[in-house]
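Example 261, ligand nicotinamide-adenine-dinucleotide.
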Amino acid sequence: MIKLGVVGANGKMGSQVVNLAINNKDFELVCAIDMFGVGKQLSENVVVEDNLEESIKKHNPDVVVDFTQPSVIYENVKKYIKLGVKSVIGTTGLSKEQVEDIEKMSKDANVGVIIAPNFSIGAILMMKFAAEASKYFSNAEIIEYHHNQKKDAPSGTSIKTAQLMMKNNDNFKLGNCDEKETIKGARGGEFQEDGKGKIQIHALRMPGFVASQQVVFGSDGQILKIHHDTINRECYMSGVEIAVKHIYKNNQFFYGLENIL
Ligand SMILES: NC(=O)c1ccc[n+]([C@@H]2O[C@H](COP(=O)([O-])OP(=O)(O)OC[C@H]3O[C@@H](n4cnc5c(N)ncnc54)[C@H](O)[C@@H]3O)[C@@H](O)[C@H]2O)c1
């Protein structure tokens, strides 16, 4: 049985992971950490605690799953590596440089880490198909739609999608004429990495959405749209389960669920 710690246990995603840990016979929930809901009883032996390091030292989980917030995630992952506990990171908002740092720290310390901007299988396929289409189109833009409580923009999934697309095509172009924005931001945010091409990302935030994304490709006389909708947060849990079971047996670093499927 895998001893699981959940960080951000009181949140929208964290509470789903708590349910997974309680209801899955392969997992035992041993600690739950959040800055809100401290003292709340989650299972017979587990109450919400707020001191991350103390809680991990006291309960000694095999793996922690982190769904907290962008402003704390980099420091959290450094703590997991320092404490020698394997981690599955669902929290988004890490920069490319931070991901590279974490990869190095994880390898140096030989402590497994999985960072996955998206745990839903449909979203992984959407990214895969977008990467495939990128071999044939050089104009593409991404529209991502999320609930209005999301703190980071654009989403980790849209950035990961753009990175995968650029692996197959380093010549993405924006519109093909001189453009003038009469309202700032009207054309979205420009994603570029390593001096390669550019992909525009548009982030919508409003009640009603959980998480959706559309990748739109255009060339002369044709449009291709690849679209994924998340209807509820349960869709992420099979991916979280796969990630926990994988990292339990591995000490490596992984960025993206697609690398362990
Ligand atoms: N990888 C994925 O598939 C996926 C899917 C959905 C959301 N996310 C990401 O997961 C993160 C959490 O999303 P959410 O919708 O559950 O948010 P949420 O606000 O509902 O939950 C976050 C929880 O973390 C807690 N928290 C924040 N900082 C903390 C700290 N320093 N110590 C302890 N607890 C802390 C908050 O109190 C809250 O309960 C976001 O970054 C979001 O983008 C990832």
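Summary: The mean pLDDT is 96.
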